[in-house]
């Protein structure tokens, strides 16, 4: 190329072959997973330079800096937050040494969100984009390449920050989870249009999808006339072969794919995860001597966000608990699924609780991290018998794929009332070697369940139907700082919680404090009460179970009991007193059945109903 021209000018008349993967190629060369690959610009510059040279010699004439994750948030995980500028400048220097005047150097900036739940502080992200881009630009990058952004909104935020900093070309690449649509629900046509309006010079795709799906996405999209098109596909889908992670697509396949991408008007063509210098050489050989082709948009491609008509669901036959509690006393009774395959006892107890006056039977989700029968299955059985279920959904046991699948299954079964909880860590349960997933917090999961109510999947894909989940949140009043606990509850309400269920309370004073502290939250509160079964049970709950405190006078009453029957009677008597105190403040009561002793909570349920009937008669 001789004396290097402006990248934007060069793309007017020429195809440019980009480089391939950095991280996956380094892994293939023996660099272990778990290292900060961006730090290698400082600790192993010879290795990074060797990769750049391999791609240059293969025919790449645009080299990306090894800075995909060289932002403050990512580097903080490795204790390298103070080296953002040093790493980015060193990366440009290494790429420039390999490129000389024969290739362009693009400063690579990856998504900070990087596939996590899309909730972030926009101001913090602005600062991180500005910090990284400033370092790359001061070091002399010929262009800024924004890559692997799943969400258009985050990519637009990055463009908003970086575009005023420079006049060098700014190329914005999205990573799609499915053909033709961003994770946050934008069709590719609209995404490209909005990026062009934000001031980018090039738009394109990279990562996640292989050549075939990139081509399908581009074939369906309209691209604005005055932006260049880029594509850096993965080497197919990631799979496991002989116990190793590998990408399937061969260099020969990429040779053919490069020609098809050219036919779509793509002018900057490279590779992403799984690609190697051999893939880039095959593409460079296929494109050698060819000129770019004009982009021809498909007929009928809409420039606006498309909408999917949502099916109208029939109204609920019975009022949801949030509607019911606004009008009358409402009792939720928790009855845990069994730890065995026999469900006869469980179903008998649930039926008796319903007969006693329980409005809803709530089913924990492997409480105390102990394996129990699926609350989805039992909820469906209860539903078929005319008993309204409310199932708990923990953040612990399922990744986001499993969470969405589980919720969709609940909806299909007609179970639309859920309580979202964090879940006890697996190390305290009966399978301590199992993994605690915790892909998201309870705040995030509440928000994502309500997203299904908008007809949008967790990935941002429009659904053909809206769910109508009524979502509960847990509240733990047994903390040193009740105000902090209330602030946490307020965040759950902001996330979309429709009602609150508290941890069990064992003294009237705490009930009164909860009422005063939560009366402003604007959603129903169900106060938790669990009868004690004995003095040892009280000691255990007070001293060993997080989130539960028992008043000294209650402990003393249980200590004086002799025998199981007397202990249970006293436990119910104490709970009855607490119920009476709670009824002065709350319409919603949440009774928790201890150790499958459904008779205890059934007795309390009958007490609530009889008390309300007596008061109704007096009122008349």
Describe this structure in words.
The strands form three sheets. Strands 1-10-7-6-5-4-3-2 form an eight-stranded parallel sheet. An eight-stranded parallel β-barrel has the order 11-12-13-14-15-16-17-18, surrounded by seven helices. A two-stranded antiparallel sheet has the order 8-9. It has two domains: 7-287, TIM Barrel, CATH 3.20.20; 323-530 and 574-619, Alpha-Beta Barrel (TIM Barrel), CATH 3.20.20. It has 620 residues and is an alpha/beta fold. One of its GO terms (molecular function) is methylenetetrahydrofolate reductase [NAD(P)H] activity. This is Homocysteine S-methyltransferase. Keywords: FAD, Flavoprotein, Metal-binding, Methyltransferase, Oxidoreductase, Transferase, Zinc. InterPro entries: FAD-linked_oxidoreductase-like (IPR029041), HCY_dom (IPR003726), HCY_dom_sf (IPR036589), Mehydrof_redctse-like (IPR003171).
């Amino acid at each position: 190329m001789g004396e290097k021209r402006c990248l934007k000018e060069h793309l007017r008349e020429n195809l440019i072959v980009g480089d391939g993967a950095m991280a996956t190629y380094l892994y293939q060369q023996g660099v272990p997973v778990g290292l900060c690959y961006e730090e290698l610009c400082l600790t192993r510059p010879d290795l990074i330079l060797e990769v750049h040279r391999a791609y240059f010699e293969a025919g790449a004439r645009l080299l990306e800096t090894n800075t995909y994750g060289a932002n403050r948030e990512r580097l903080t995980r490795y204790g390298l937050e103070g080296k953002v500028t040093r790493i980015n400048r060193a990366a440009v220097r290494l790429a420039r040494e390999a490129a000389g005047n024969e290739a362009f150097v693009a400063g690579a900036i990856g998504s900070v969100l990087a596939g996590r739940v899309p909730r972030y502080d926009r101001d913090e992200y602005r600062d991180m984009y500005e910090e990284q881009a400033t370092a790359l630009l001061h070091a002399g990058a010929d262009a800024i390449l924004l890559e692997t952004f799943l969400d258009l909104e985050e990519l637009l935020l990055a463009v908003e920050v970086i575009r005023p900093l420079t006049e060098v070309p700014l190329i914005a690449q999205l990573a799609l989870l499915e053909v033709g649509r961003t994770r946050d629900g934008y069709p590719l046509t609209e995404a490209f249009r909005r990026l062009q309006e934000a001031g980018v010079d090039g738009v394109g795709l990279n990562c996640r999808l292989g050549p075939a799906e990139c081509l399908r996405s581009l074939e369906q999209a309209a691209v604005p006339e005055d932006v260049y098109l880029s594509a850096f596909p993965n080497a197919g889908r990631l799979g496991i072969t002989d116990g190793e992670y590998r990408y399937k697509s061969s260099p020969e396949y990429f040779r053919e794919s490069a020609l098809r991408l050219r036919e779509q008007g793509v002018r900057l063509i490279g590779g992403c995860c799984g690609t190697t210098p051999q893939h880039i050489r095959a593409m460079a050989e296929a494109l050698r001597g060819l000129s770019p082709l004009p982009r021809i948009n498909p007929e009928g491609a809409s420039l606006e966000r498309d909408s999917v008509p949502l099916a109208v669901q029939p109204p609920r036959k019975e009022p949801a608990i949030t509607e019911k509690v606004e009008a009358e006393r409402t009792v939720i009774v928790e009855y845990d699924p069994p730890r065995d395959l026999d469900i006869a006892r469980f179903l008998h107890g649930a039926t008796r609780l319903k007969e006693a006056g329980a409005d809803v039977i709530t089913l924990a989700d492997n409480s105390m991290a102990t394996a129990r029968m699926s609350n989805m299955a039992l909820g469906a059985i209860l539903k078929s018998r005319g008993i309204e279920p409310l199932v708990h959904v923990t953040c612990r046991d399922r990744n986001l794929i499993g969470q969405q699948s589980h919720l969709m299954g609940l909806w299909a079964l007609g179970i639309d009332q859920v309580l979202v909880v964090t879940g006890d860590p697996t190390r305290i349960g009966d399978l301590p070697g199992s993994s605690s997933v915790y892909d998201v917090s309870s705040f995030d999961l509440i928000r994502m369940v309500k997203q299904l109510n908008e007809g949008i999947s967790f990935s941002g894909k429009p659904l053909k139907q809206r769910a109508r989940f009524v979502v509960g949140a847990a509240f733990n009043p047994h903390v040193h700082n009740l105000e902090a606990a209330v602030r946490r509850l307020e965040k759950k309400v902001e996330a979309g919680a429709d009602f609150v269920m508290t941890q069990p309370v064992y003294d009237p004073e705490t009930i009164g404090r909860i009422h005063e502290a939560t009366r402003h939250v604007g959603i129903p509160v169900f106060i938790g009460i669990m009868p004690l079964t004995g003095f040892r049970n009280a000691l255990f709950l007070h001293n060993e179970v997080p989130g539960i405190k028992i008043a000294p006078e209650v402990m003393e009453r249980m200590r004086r009991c002799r025998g199981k029957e007397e202990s249970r009677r006293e436990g119910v008597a104490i709970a009855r007193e607490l119920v009476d105190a709670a009824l002065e403040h709350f319409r919603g009561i949440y009774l928790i059945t201890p150790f499958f002793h459904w008779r205890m909570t059934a007795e309390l349920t009958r007490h609530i109903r009889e008390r309300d009937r007596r008061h109704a008669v007096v009122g008349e």
